[in-house]
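User: For a benchmark we're assembling, each entry needs the component sequences followed by a predicted structure for the full assembly. Here are entry 17's components. Please fill in the structure.
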Amino acid sequence: MCGIVGYIGPREAAEVVVGGLQRLEYRGYDSAGIAIFEPAAGLQLRRSVGKLSNLVARLSREPVTGHVGMGHTRWATHGNVTEENAHPHRDTSGQIVVIQNGIVENYLELKARLLELGYQFHSQTDTEVIAQLVGHYYREEGALEPALRRALAELRGGNAVVALCAAEPDRILAARLGNAGGVVLGLAQGESFVASDVPAILDYTRDLIFLEDRELAVITREGVTISTLAGTPVERRPVAVPWDPVAAARGDYKHFMQKEIHEQPRALMDVLRGRIDQEAGRVHLDDLRLDDEALRRVRRIYVTACGTAWHAGLVAKYMIERLARVQVEVDYASEFRYREPVLGDDALLVAITQSGETVDTLAAMEEARAQGVPSVAIVNAIGSQAARLADGGALYLHAGPEIGVASTKAFTSMLAAAYLFALRLGQARRTLGPAQIRAHLQALVELPGKAAEAIERALPVCAELAERYHRASDALFLGRQVSYPVALEGALKLKEISYIHAEGYPAGEMKHGPIALIDEDMPVVCIAPRDGIFPKMLSNIEQVRARHGQVIAVGNVGDTELAAKASHLIDVPDTLPLLQPVLSVIPLQILAYDVALRRGCDVDQPRNLAKSVTVE
Ligand code: F6R
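Assistant: Structure for entry 17:
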C-alpha cells in the first residue's frame, strides 16, 4: 500500500529515493518522508504531509546530502495524516530509522510494553513501535541486524520493513513478513537498491531479487546477503526484468489514466503475442504449468479477485463456462479467504490481479494451496507475489505498468487473458475443436483494432455527455449477462474518480428496488450490445424512459433501434458476445475520466485510494 525506496552507493541518495518514490506515489499519497545519512551530521529526516511534491519543496528549502538513505510514501492505516505520523520513524536514541509497508496487528500490545519500559512515542503509528522495539534490542545487541531480527520475531501481521542505523551507515536492512508488502532488491555496479515495487528502481537496474516471506536482506554497496529470519543463508540469483522505464512515464498525456485508456489496443495485442496459432486453431499458454491431462481433471474453478479484477472474474465465469463447460464460482478474495471454502481435489483456483500484491487475493491463493488445490494467476506485475505463489503458472498480461489508480488497461487485458485461458481449457477438454478455436482467435486478433475504434468513437460523445451530466449526484449502470460486470465496472470507475455515487445492477433486478431512484435527473447508463439478451435490455430501457430517466446507451455501431429508444447512444464495434465487454467498457472509462476532469478531481490519485491494497 505504501511505497518504499532505499539506496546505497555513490549517487546522491535523496535524488534516487525521491525519484523512486515518484514512481510509487500511486501506492499512497497521504504523506511522504525521507531519511538520509549525512556523514557529518548523522541521520537527517524530512517529512511532509500530502503529496510527494510537498516533500520535494521541503527538500529544496532544507536539502540533505549523503549516499545512503531511504524514503516512504504513505497510505495511512494507523494514525491520522500528520507529519508526526509520516515515515520514517525513529527510535528514542534517534540513531535508528524505520519505514514500513503493512500493518503490525499486535502493535498496541507491543506499545504498551514499551511504554512500561519508559519509551515515549511521538506518533500514533504502528511503525514507530517497530523503530522503538529495534532500538530497545539494539541497546542489548549493539548491532542493527540482531536487533531487527529480534523485533521482527515479535511482530504479527504482514509487513515490509526497512531499517537504517547511523552507527552502521554501510548497510540498509530490509525484511519481509507475510504477503502484505513486496520487497524488491536491485543490484548494480557499486550500488544497491531496495523498493516495494519494480518501477521505483528500473532507471538504474534490471537485475532484481524478490525477497520472500520471512527473509531479511543486508544491503550494501557491494550487493545483498539474504537469510531467513531464523538465520539460514539463502542463495538467490537476480532475475532480469524487461519493463521499459519510459513506459512508466506519462508521456504527452495529461494523466496516467488517460494514457492507459489509450494504451489498450497495444495491451490487447501484447496479451495475445506468442500465445495463439491461428492456422492450427490452437492456443499455447506456455506459462501455464498445467498440461492437458491436468486441465481435463478440473471439475470446478474458483475465480477470486478484488475490485476491478473481480469484475473481470465475473466475465471470466461466462467465458469459462460457455467455452470449456467447467463450473465456475467467483468470489471476492476478502470473502473467500474467511469463508472456509470447500474446494475439493478436482478444483482449480484462478486469481486475477493487476498488482499481484493484493493481500486478500494472495491469502485466497494460500488457502487454495493449504487445501492442495493448484492456482493459476492472471497477473500483470512481473515477478509479483501472486505470480510466484501460482503453482499452476502465472498468465502474465504484459500490459506494462499501470500507474493510474483506476484500473483500465489491466481490466481489458484481464478479459483477453481470461478468454485465452477459457479457450485453452476448452482445447484440452475438447469442448472446442480447431475450427471453433480459429473463429475465436480471429475475433481476438481483431480486438485491438476494434478497441482503437471504440476509443475514437467514444471520445467526442463522452466529452459532450460529461459536459451535460458532470453535476449529477447519482448514476445507475445496468447490464445483463456479460454486460452486467461491465455495468459494475462502469459504476466503479465513475465513483472512484469523480466521487459521484454510482451503482451497477443487473438490468433485470431494476424492478426489484433501484427503479425507485429513477427521476428526470438520473443518468442511467445501459449496456446494450446486440447479443441474445438485447430484446430484454431494450424493454428495460423503455421502463427507465417511462420514469423520465436519462438513458445513456452503450450499443453497437449502426443500432438505429437502440438510438431511437435511448436519450444518447455511445456506439462501439461489435465482436463475439463474450468479448463484447472489452469494447463496451471503453466508453465507460472515458466517460468517468471526462466527468472527473470537469469536476476538478485528481484523476490519477483519487482520495482515500491506493493502487496496491496490501493491507486488509
Ligand atoms: C479500481 C481498482 C481496484 C483494483 C483492486 C484489485 O479501479 O483498480 O478495484 O482492481 O484493488 O487490485 P489488483 O488487480 O492489483 O489485485
